[in-house]
């Protein structure tokens, strides 16, 4: 598959939160190391265990989530699990609480594309009449979560536009939605590491 056909969506808000979080965590870690060296008390370095836990959580909750759109499928990389949905099993794209891929079996939400909230307001003046935005609400209005300038709205347009183009090119097999299920992969290594660091953090804080 041509890499030019691959689109990776990661919200700007998550990038900002990740970089800011890591900067603060790094400052805290450096302070802990300096404090231990200045006092000549190496046991205080145990404070780096909860620091490592926080750094991992920032990566898992904010940096890792993304959506990858290709001509073969849509992949939702969420905290602690990844879902891959083939175009042939997709029956709808919703934005009520987040960008959501709907299949006959269940609905899969993208952590990387939440509906508008305190940190994800729509961009004022953004267009809202794109042909791939999707149907209006039952009352005839337009959901804020479908508006361009929001993570959920922008990504919904991207996914629907690719879906329409592939369908028009007859590149999506028909009649397979019920038979083909989404692939779900749990991030076992990340979960195990978080549990290990969390378990070690309480005694580490006591030792520090």
TrEMBL record:
Pfam families: bPH_6 (PF10756). Keywords: Membrane, Transmembrane, Transmembrane helix. Residues 124-148 are annotated as: Disordered. This is Low molecular weight protein antigen 6 PH domain-containing protein. Signal peptide: none annotated. Residues 64-111 form the Low molecular weight protein antigen 6 PH domain. It comes from the Bacteria. InterPro entries: CFP-6_PH. The chain crosses the membrane at residues 12-38, 44-63, 188-207. The lineage of its organism: Bacteria, Bacillati, Actinomycetota, Actinomycetes, Micrococcales.
